[in-house]
Amino acid sequence: MTQPALDLVIAALERIREKSDRAPCASRTALARLQAAPVAASLREACTSPTERRLQTRNKADLLAAVRERVRTCTKCAHLACSRTQTVFGVGNPDADLMFIGEAPGADEDQQGEPFVGRAGQLLTRILKAMNFAREDVYIANILKCRPDMPAGSFGNRPPTPTEMQTCRPYLVEQINIIQPNVLVALGAVAVEGLLGTRATMRELRGRWHTYNSIPLMITYHPAYLLRNQAPSEKRKVWEDMLQVLERLERPISDRQRNYFL
Ligand code: SF4
Question: How far, in Å, CA of 126 to CA of 49, rounded?
Answer without folding.
Answer: 32
